[in-house]
Amino acid sequence: MDITIRIAGEAGQGLQTTGDLLVRVFTRLGLHVFSTQSYLSRIRGGLNWCDIRIEDKELFSGREQADLLVALNKDALDELRDQVTEGGMILFNGSAESGILGVDFSAIAKELVGSAVMANSVAAGAIIELLGYDIEELCRFLEVTFKKKGDEIIQNNVKCARQGAAMVSSQAGHIAAPKPTGSPECVCTGGEALGLGAATAGVSFATAYPMTPGTAVLTYLAGVSDEYGITVEQAEDEIAAVNMVCGAVYAGAVAMTTTSGGGFALMTEGVSLAGMMELPIVIHIAQRPGPATGLPTRTAQQDLKMVLYAGHGEFPRAIYTPGTLRQAYDLMRRAFETAHKYQSPVFILSDEFLVDIQKNIEPLDKIRRPIVQYIVEEAGPDYQRYTVTPDGISPRAVPGGEALVICDSDEHSESGHITEDLAARIRQQDKRMAKGKGILAEVIPPEVYGPAEATHLLVCWGSTYGPCREAVDRLNSGEPNFAMVHFSQVWPIDVEKVKKILTPQGLDSSLRKITFVEGNVTAQMASVLREQGIHLDCDTLLRYDGMPFSGEEIARRIEK
Amino acid sequence: MNLGKFDHTPAWCPGCGNFPILKTLEKALDQAGIDRRKLVLTSGIGQAAKTPHYTRANVFNGLHGRALPAATGIKIANRDIEVVITSGDGDMYGEGGNHFIHAIRRNIPVKAFVHNNQVYGLTKGQASPTSDLGFITKIQTHGVRNTPFNPLAVAIVEDCPFVARTFSGDRDHLLAMMVAALQFTGGFVLLDILQPCVSFNRRNTNQWYRERVKPVDDSHDPFDRRAALEIALTWGDEIPIGIIYRSNRKSYFDD
After folding, report:
1. How many Cβ atoms sit within 10 Å of the Cβ of residue B173?
2. CA–centroid distance for B100 within its chain
């Protein structure tokens, strides 16, 4: 049994603060928490909400309806009251009306402590009480949180929380909330997991031009820059951001940039530069709906093909698409490893949904464990940067030692100097492409969740992991006919391996249904697989309104 | 087809201003005692941007207009490396204009040697950001109407710590400016090098520059910003050369 609490209001009303407070209190209580944001591209006004879902087991997706709607203003009440489950409750920041509990959070805070700032604590107190949890747990948490701010602040917050609880005590425990059974303590967002993955991998230089939702990773890295020794630079534009990274890795740094689709469009020439110069750059792209400026604060999976084809000319690359917070952390590290091993551009493709997910998970290792950069120290005066080798990987030196390191965006000879020798061109182009074989050999196979011989496969990539996995669980509550196939690396494609999973020999393919679940209009992943010669008779289940899938939505649409 | 041998000789026309710049750069690097192993020559695209290939140094010959962000990344990754940008007016002031503005604001300690011939050479004679008003080309058939970009004035307004101009036809002056620039450690260096393009600029010829360039007066105090701006705005019958502006502004690496 799980419960979704939806706190809604306008930007600037402290939704995030209340949400964050509750996520941490629920975690302390020992509940599994899964929280998402829905916000407009504005700093004040509008209608935003924060969903917090709690359960006694791990959660992977949000829900469509709320069991408890906390409406901080009239707009939120009017807009969202229809999206409350049967038997659910509405708590309104104002006066009560029929079927609606009214508690004026700001007025209470003002009356009690002379400031509306602590309205969040009043709201949190009321919510905890309605769910039947121990208000003392919230008070203890407030004590810890505000320890640095002194006794008065602590006492005032506690007072507010208790009063919030008292206001609804007649309805205490009205909502049947899950029993805490213990849960992981590490509260983390997708953006933080990605950032920590980069920091622990030894990233020493990170750049970006601010763009929602990609900025979250740069903000995290800036916050830990002193701790991990990272130079964080806000570039004048995305073109500078990627070219700075190219220069930095040439000189020996572990470097990355982070952006969204529009910013990445500007970076594409730099991607091609990294392909030509064989530079180990990592680019994180958090997708949002396009074309153009699109919906800046919403989610999408529309840039797979752009990232796959970005950059003129032909060169190898790898694209990782994490589906969980743990994968976000692990694959960010993996991206740096692959980039350095194969001296090629590598991409992490996430989206607003993944970046903004907040969840309690098993702790991520915070120890800095720098990746291997494969830089040759012993290169001498005869060194040639682009020596032809069977696997295409030329020993990479960096400037400052005995060897001179010559890199050119023009076609070049083994020495690195510009050349228009057409035979040398072929040798270098073949050398660069040869690295693709190594990248392919190390590709992460898609994960199968559910029975391997399932008669219906839901195929997805990236952040759709959670909703799809939950849909499989829901659909399998009767006959276990469903399985999920999730790609956490969408490029390159190991065709034979993928075929084996999707259409195993010995399984009558006419008895198996395959549905691609993607956050776009054209089923880009299905199309990429077809292009690779994987001919599939498949259905699609798509969403492109800017909101993430939920498990119940996928299950409902499949059952239709 | 082996065309390799053509790659090792400079791709410049006889009489090109890039030749004296290259020769003097070699001399200046030696005179300033630069260890070639700890030197990265960075450039974008264009005829001037090929310069790094003809010297002995580490080379990062990147994308058109993007020499400065690459140089910034290199310097941040390893501040023991001397980063010198040798690129042209189109690359640095046109395609890379935004980076020019912000690299100076950032005050990243790299040295920009801009070969400024007031025309696009590699694409065969279109107007550049610094082309004079009225300059007629195959594209600007009625003459250039855009106000010429004034790199020195922009740099001074941004408080660039070292702003100088020189002329490829005056080797001694060129050498002195390059050595001074290489020895400067306080932040971003802009050295605008006036240079003739013998193929595509018949207006601003070697002779034309020679008749006009005039070293700034000894009495000029380069720390006087207003006086420096006045000099930077002088262009026409007289073109001032020399160290025009200096400031003690903190560099990117200073706390």
Report:
1. 19
2. 11
Q: CA of A185, closest CA in chain B: separation in Å? A: 36
> Rounded distance, CA B198 to CA B205, Å?
7
Asked whether residue A42 carries a pLDDT value surpassing 80, the answer given is no
Distance from CA of A229 to the nearest CA of B (A): 12
Minimal CA separation from A99 to chain B, in Å: 58
Residue A214 CB partners (closer than 8 Å, separation 6+): A208, A258, A259, A260, A263, A284, A285, A286, A355
Cα A519 to its chain centre, rounded Å, is: 14
Token pair for residue A341?
């091993």
Which domains does chain B carry?
13-246 (3.40.50.970)
Place of tokens 């929602």: A212
Mutate to test the interface with B, among A243, A385, A410, A414 (most CBs of B within 10 A): A243
Assess contact for A285 and B100: CB atoms under 8 A: no
Q: How many helices (H) and strands (E) does chain B have?
A: 8, 8
Asked if B7 has any chain A CB less than 8 Å from its own CB, the reply is yes
The angle at the Cα of A340, spanning A384 to A304, to the nearest 5 degrees, equals 120
- Cα(A508)–Cα(B228) distance, rounded to whole angstroms? 82
Asked if B171 and B177 touch (Cβ cutoff 8 Å), the reply is: no
Taking a contact as any Cβ pair under 8 Å apart, which residues of chain A between 404 and 463 contact chain B? 404-410, 413, 416-424
Domains of chain A: 3-171 (3.40.920.10), 187-361 (3.40.50.970), 375-442 (no CATH), 447-559 (3.40.50.920)
Paired with B167 in beta bridges are B194
Tens of pLDDT, residue by residue over A346-366, are: 999 999 999 999 999 999 999
Comparing CB atoms, the residue among A400, A418, A419 nearest residue B50 is: A418
- Among A318, A299, A311, A292, which residue's Cα sits nearest to residue A216? A299
Is the pLDDT at B12 greater than 50, yes or no?
yes
| Window A:264-323, CB contacts with B under 8 Å | 269-270, 273, 277
Q: Are B78 and A399 inside 8 Å of each other by CB? A: yes
> Do the chains contact at B73 and A243, CB–CB below 8 Å?
yes
Between CA A13 and CA A120 the distance in angstroms is 9
Alpha carbon A67 to chain centroid, angstroms: 26
Taking the C-alpha atoms of residue A426 and residue A370, their distance in angstroms, rounded to an integer, is: 35
CB-based contact A419 B38, cutoff 8 Å: no
Is the peptide bond preceding residue A467 cis, with omega within 30 degrees of 0? no
Tell me which H or E stretch contains A465. Answer: helix A465-475
User: Taking a contact as any Cβ pair under 8 Å apart, which residues of chain B between 63 and 82 contact chain A?
Assistant: 63, 66, 68-78, 80-81
CB A332 within 8 A of CB A348: yes
Closest approach of A247 to chain B, Cα-based (Å): 4
A241, A406, A420 member nearest B3 (Cβ)? A420
A313 contacts in B (CB within 8 Å)? none
- What is the full DSSP assignment across A119-170? HHHHHHHHHHHHTT--HHHHHHHHHHHTGGG-HHHHHHHHHHHHHHHHHTGG
- In this predicted model, what pLDDT tens digit does every residue of B114-164 receive, in sequence order? 999 999 988 989 999 999 999 999 999 999 999 999 999 999 999 999 999
- pLDDT tens, residue by residue, A69-94: 999 999 999 999 999 999 999 999 99
User: A551-559 vs A465-475: helix axis angle to the nearest 10?
Assistant: 50
The Cβ-side half-sphere exposure at B211, using a 13 Å CA radius, reads 7
- A100, β-bridge pairs: A97
Instruction: Compute and round to an integer the Cα radius of gyration of chain A.
Output: 26
Contact B3 A253 (CB under 8 A): no
Locate the chain A residue with the closest alpha carbon to B98: A236
Report whether B168 contacts B21 (CB < 8 A).
yes
